[in-house]
Structure formats: C-alpha cells, structure tokens
Design goal:
Blueprint lengths: L6 H6 L4 H12 L1 H9 L1 H4 L5 E3 L5 E6 L2 E3 L16 E5 L4 E4 L3 E5 L13 E5 L3 E3 L8 H5 L6 H29 L1 H19 L5 H27 L4 H28 L3 H10 L15 H6 L3 H14 L8 H19 L2 H8 L9 H27 L7 H10 L1 H14 L3 H16 L9 H29 L12 H23 L8 H17 L14 H5 L15 H5 L4
Antiparallel strand pairs: 1-8, 2-3, 2-4, 4-5, 5-6, 6-7
Helix pairs in contact: 3-8, 3-9, 6-7, 6-8, 6-20, 7-8, 7-10, 8-9, 9-16, 9-17, 15-19, 15-20, 15-21, 17-19, 18-19, 18-21, 19-20
C-alpha cells in the first residue's frame, strides 16, 4: 500500500478532472515560451540588400538581366555573385554591392563588364528587398556590414537571459512557492513582450528581450515542477515529457504568424497576445500540496485536498494530518534503518562527489554531454531550419511539428526498451542523419530538409528523457517530506543545457561558411556522445539508489539495497 504524500493520488486520482484541467491550463503558457525563444528567427531576419543608390536611375544591369528599376532586380540578384550596375539620368554609372559602391570613371558604353578605373565609396545607407521582409530590426536600424554583429548578438543575449532566469526563478520558487512565480512570470512575459515592440532603438530592444528571456525561462523551469507535483508516477513521465510538446506548438505559431505578418513590431505584438488569455485564469491556480505540506501550511493543504476531491467527484475523506503522520513516520524509520547515513551523505555530498571515482566521472561527463548536445542540437535545428532552402515558414513549422511524435515515441520507448536503449540510438540516429548532409548536393533541398528534420526528431527524444534518466543515475536521499540529492545532478546538467543554448546561435552563424556546417557539427558530436551513452547503466526497473556506492554499482551487479524513495523526488528536481 502506498504511504506518505503519494497516497493522496491513490485516493484523489492520478490524473483525473482536477489534475487534467490544471495541467492543460498550465502548459498553455509554455506555448508562449516556445514563441519567444524562437521569435528572433523573423525579428532579426536579414533580407537581400545593397548600398544606397543614386537618384534618377534610368537603367539597371545584373548579369544578363536588363531592367529599369532597382526594385525589379531582387528576384534575380544573388549576394556574392557580382554587383548591380545602375545608370543615372546624368549618365553616371555605379556598381552597387552589399557594403560598397563604386563610380565608374570615363565610362562610355553602359554594359555589365567594365575594366576601367573606379572610385570606391562606403555606403551612406542601404536599400532592402521588401518582397519577403517588409520590416525587421535589421532594416530599421541598418544592422548590416560593420553592424552585422549587433544583429547576431540578439539571440545569444536572449539565451544568456534564459540561463540567468533559470537560476534565479528556480531558487525563488522554492522559497516563496510555485504559484506566485507562475503568475509573476506570466504577467511579465506579457508586459515585456509588448514592450519589445515599442522599444524604439536597438539597445533597448536587446534589453527588453533579455528580461523577456529571464521570465520565460523562469516560467518554463517552475511549470515542470508544478505539473509533476500534481500527478503521480504512473503518468508523470508523460506529463513532464509533453510540456516539451507545448513548447513545440509555440514554434509552429511563430512560423504561422511569421508567414502572415512581415512587419516585426506587429508580429511581436500578435505573438505576445496569442497566449494572453492565460492571464485571465492563472490567478486561480492553487499552490501544490507538496509545497504547502513542506512549509507547514496545513490548513491550506487540507482545503486543496478537499477541492481536488470535489472536482474529481470523490468523497473528501483524505486528511492532511494522516499524510503528515505517515511522512514523519517514514522519515523516522529511514533514519533508524540507515543509522543516520542519510544526513551524513547530505552534508558531504557536493559536485565533486559526482567525479569521485573514474566510473562516476565518466558517467557524469557523459550526462553533461547529453544535456549539452540535447540543447545545442535542439536550437540549432530550429534556428537553421529557415536556411535550408524552399519555404522557410514551412521548414520552421515542420521543425516544431516533428517534435510532437518524437515525445510520444520517446515516452513509449523509455518505458518499454529502457532509458539507455532509447537515448543512445536516438543520438546515433541524429548524428548519422546530420553527417549524411555532407553528401547532399546543395540543389537537392528536399533531401537536406528531410535529414535535418530526422536529426531534430532524434535529438528531441534524447533531450526529452535526459531529465528522468539523470535522476535515476544518481542517489536520492529524503529530508523532511521531499529532498533530493538528484537535484545536484540535474542542476549541474541543466547548466550544461543552458550553455548549449547560448552556444547554439554562434553555431548557427557558421552557416555563413557552409550552409550545412551547423548540422554537421551537431551530427558529429551527437554520434560521439551516442557511443558514450552506450556505456551508461540501464535504470529501467532498477530501484532508486540512496548512496553514491549504490549508484556506482548500477549496471555492474544487482542492486541489493532497495531504497524506500518514491519517484516524486526525481521529477521534483527539474529546477534548471
């Protein structure tokens, strides 16, 4: 018979009406997180451009194309394939390139090739192709040529905000509760999201996006904890994995709105408003029963249990006093059985203990590598999808849509064939798919898109299950109602995840060297890490370990020590 806090799910339901309504209401705002994380794809889009042209143009030449207006040249113009030559009413001939322009001296005939002397000048301004991008941050502030680095800095700065937000709000949520953080970050997402559209200058734009990243990351971190504290182990894997699916829906929303709206500030407002209905009901969210019990707020906890029973059409027979007595009894028994070992391990456990032996050092390094490549690959595949050729909006939509079946398959596979046997093949598949891009001719765009989406599909599976797998690879110790040393492993792994997200935009910029270089880098790393993952122990069906010695013995011999630890701690530690 289940005892302790988990008994409330036996009496009130594992995922009945109350939990289901709360779950889908909470993850609705995760869509907003996916939106803001990927919105920069079109916010900072750089269209084709040339140096500003002189007035009174009468003729335009580009290769073998002869036109009368510069606006008509964009369908033929390819950056890096020669200048555009224009002639003014006064007879002057200019060669226009993206970052330079040259006046032909003593030109007689108006023709594309010219071997005479030229006077080269820097650009006083720029003209843009508005057929695809009517207005973006780049066109508004001329973030091209010597200012191109400012445009490329926007996404890494956002990801830095994601890292800081995860650290700040994860800790604050433990201090003041999950509900206040969910409400505050949701409101700030709306405020900062709208403010971004009216910044007026580049630096304020970057600052507002940085703050938006912090609160978006804060919501995403805390909502994982929130939804898992309202569900039991039988459905917790599915509910936590499919939080990622809501994030993927946000990517699809970005693609749809980007296709319909080509003015960046209107696009930003629409994206922000798309999840604003969440603000109308988030104030009704309750605090989680586990947090209330841990903080000694028993009256509120009892009211919540009665409300859950009412909504689930069950009699309100469960009493907080019973749960409290059982949890106290479990703690007392554990302390007697372990002779105080739990508290001793708690005191001495640090990040250095994750590398205390050669085996644990290899395990920890591999786990960190999976966290890193999961995040790096996820954002690289999403961000570069618009550069694969074909329709960029369809590509980005597919990059989000392909995640939904990946999480479904991942959930089934990790419980059927095991964690290691799901994670390692997924990384290997992603690596092979990406490395095959080397042999794809650049004119066969559809094949490159298929391989890239296959890589995204595989990486998403590994990225989705690494949370749970990491918790199971390290020891868990109970303190009061819940406390997990697994948080050390997940917390440090999550830091590597955030490092991957910060590195991802810089990796994407390598496409300027070769369009498929980002996927190739991710593919090689994923393949190597996939091989290393095969040396990790399998944890499916294994009891949770309570000491580092037991954790180290995983995979080498049967684990004879069955720790009386519920799987709640595993998911409780998702506090990036």
């Amino acid at each position: 018979m289940t005892t302790g806090m988990e008994r409330l799910f036996d009496q009130l339901g594992h995922f009945k009406r109350f939990q289901a309504c709360l779950y889908f209401a909470a993850i609705f705002q995760v869509i907003s997180c996916g939106i803001h994380y990927l919105a920069s794809v079109f916010l900072v889009e750089t269209p084709k451009f040339l140096c500003d042209s002189p007035s009174n143009i009468t003729n335009v030449l580009y290769r073998n194309h002869s036109l009368t207006s510069l606006a008509d040249i964009w369908t033929h113009y390819k950056p890096g394939d020669g200048p555009v030559v224009v002639q003014t009413a006064g007879g002057d001939q200019w060669e226009l390139s993206p970052c330079l322009k040259a006046l032909r001296l003593d030109a007689i005939n108006f023709q594309y090739e010219f071997f005479g002397n030229k006077t080269v000048e820097s650009c006083g301004g720029f003209v843009y192709d508005h057929s695809e991008v009517e207005q973006s941050i780049v066109t508004d502030y001329d973030l091209v040529c010597e200012k191109e680095w400012l445009a490329k800095l926007a996404q890494p700065t956002f990801m830095l905000g994601v890292l800081i937000g995860a650290l700040v709000f994860g800790d604050v949520a433990d201090r003041i509760g999950r509900r206040p953080i969910l409400m505050a970050t949701s409101l700030c997402q709306f405020i900062f999201g709208v403010t971004v559209a009216f910044t007026g200058n580049y630096y304020l734009f970057v600052l507002m996006r940085f703050l938006l990243a912090m609160v978006s990351s804060g919501y995403l971190v805390v909502v994982f904890v929130y939804v898992t504290e309202f569900t039991r182990i039988k459905v917790r894997t599915w509910t936590s994995m499919h939080v990622h699916a809501a994030f993927a829906v946000g990517i699809m929303v970005v693609a749809l709105v980007g296709y319909l709206v080509r003015v960046w500030w209107i696009y930003q407002i629409i994206l922000t408003l798309s999840t604003s209905p969440f603000l109308l009901y988030c104030w009704k969210f309750p605090e989680t029963p586990f947090y209330l019990m841990a903080k000694g707020r028993y009256k509120e906890a009892q009211e919540l249990l009665d409300t859950m029973a009412y909504f689930n059409s069950l009699p309100p027979t469960l009493k907080v006093s019973e749960l409290k007595d059982e949890c106290d009894g479990e703690l007392l028994n554990d302390n007697k059985q372990e002779d105080g070992r739990a508290m001793q391990v708690k005191k001495r456990l640090s990040i250095l203990d994750m590398f205390g032996s050669l085996k644990m050092a290899g395990r920890s390094a591999t786990c960190w590598a999976i966290w890193f490549i999961g995040s790096l690959g996820y954002y690289v595949f999403s961000l570069v999808s618009v550069n694969l050729g074909g329709n960029q909006y369809i590509n980005l939509f597919l990059a989000g849509a392909i995640e939904v079946p990946s999480y479904l398959i991942g959930c089934i596979a990790m419980d059927r064939v095991g964690r290691k046997k799901t994670c390692a093949p997924a990384l290997l598949l992603g690596g092979v798919a990406c490395m095959l891009i080397i042999v794809v001719p650049q004119d066969i765009e559809i094949l490159a898109i298929v391989l890239s989406m296959t890589g995204k599909f595989a990486i998403a599976i590994a990225f989705g299950l690494i949370y749970l797998y990491t918790c199971e690879l390290y020891p868990t110790i109970i303190r009061h109602y819940f406390w997990s040393n697994g948080s050390l492993a997940v917390g440090s792994g999550s830091m590597m995840c955030r490092v991957g997200s910060v590195v991802a935009p810089f990796c994407v910029y390598l496409a300027d060297i070769w369009i498929y270089l980002p996927q190739l880098i991710v593919g090689i790393l994923a393949f190597i890490i996939g091989i290393l993952t095969m040396f990790l122990p399998e944890t499916l069906g294994q009891p949770l370990t309570s000491t580092l010695e037991e954790a180290e013995a995983l995979g080498s011999k049967p684990n004879t020590k069955i720790a009386a630890v519920d799987a709640l701690e595993m998911n409780q530690t998702i506090k990036a």
